């Protein structure tokens, strides 16, 4: 049994954007250590240059660890790509991987990996100030009523750790050219049926191709940790067999 669960975020989001979820999950599995690590260019590492490959992101995540024991990974969106590549390259380091709303080239068309109604929104977000940008992002990743308080928190954090548009494009390029083989670790998928950013079909396609179990969330958006934190925490605990 592993003693550490590492949480990995997606495109241009950092540990901060998990909100209260890590604390919630930690309360459910106190015998494990819940750790969140930022990719260069995101979160508290926003001043750094993002790797332009998922492999490079894996190496950065690994270099930031304080121990070398096996880990369980919980990863959302592009974080799932990082988790998959980590498990593929270093099978002795990853015990299990739970991918949330993750898509990979080769399993589904581009218009399912990023739904077309978001193209203009993303362009507007990149050209906007922190508050407007975070408001647009919220509209894409959450199915909940607009939470102005949360958006303001995200904007204040972005002011402290400002995004660099160049890093966005480096990360997007890394995600677009990413390819991976099925890792040998225990592998699970979670998909939001009503995801407005990435079609849940993209996640289902991977799960079916690799014969991996998939759990469907019927109400939450792309970021289930925002919309359904308790639901997500319970599913993770069940998967890790530590109930």
UniProtKB/TrEMBL annotation:
Q: Does the keyword tRNA processing apply?
A: no
The AB hydrolase-1 domain is annotated at 5-228
Pfam families annotated for this entry?
A: Abhydrolase_1
Asked if the keyword Hydrolase belongs to this entry, the reply reads: yes
Coiled-coil zones? none
Q: Which GO MF term does the entry hold, naming one?
A: hydrolase activity
Question: What UniProt keywords are attached to this protein's entry?
Answer: Hydrolase
List, alphabetically, the Gene3D superfamilies matched: alpha/beta hydrolase (3.40.50.1820)
- Name-wise, this protein is Alpha/beta hydrolase
Organism of this sequence: Vibrio japonicus
């Amino acid at each position: 049994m592993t003693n550490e669960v590492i949480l990995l975020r997606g495109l241009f989001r950092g540990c901060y954007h998990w909100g209260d979820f890590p604390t919630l999950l930690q309360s459910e599995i106190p015998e494990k250590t819940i750790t969140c690590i930022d990719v260069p260019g995101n979160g508290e590492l926003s001043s750094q240059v993002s790797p332009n490959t998922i492999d490079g992101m894996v190496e950065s995540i690994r270099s930031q660890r304080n121990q070398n024991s096996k880990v369980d990974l919980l990863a959302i969106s592009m974080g799932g790509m990082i988790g998959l590549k980590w498990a593929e390259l270093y099978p002795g380091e990853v015990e299990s991987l739970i991918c949330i709303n993750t898509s990979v080239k080769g399993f589904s068309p581009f218009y399912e990996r990023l739904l077309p109604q978001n193209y203009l929104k993303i362009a507007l977000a990149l050209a906007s100030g922190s508050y407007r940008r975070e408001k647009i992002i919220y509209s894409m990743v959450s199915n909940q009523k607009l939470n102005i308080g949360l958006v303001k928190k995200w904007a204040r954090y972005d002011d402290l750790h400002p995004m660099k548009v160049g890093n966005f494009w480096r990360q997007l390029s890394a995600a677009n050219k990413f390819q991976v083989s099925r890792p040998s670790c225990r592998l699970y998928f979670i998909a939001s049926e009503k995801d407005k950013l990435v079609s849940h079909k993209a996640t289902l396609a991977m799960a079916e191709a690799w014969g991996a179990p998939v759990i469907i969330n019927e109400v939450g958006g792309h970021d289930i940790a925002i919309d359904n934190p308790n639901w997500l925490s319970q599913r993770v605990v069940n998967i890790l067999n530590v109930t």
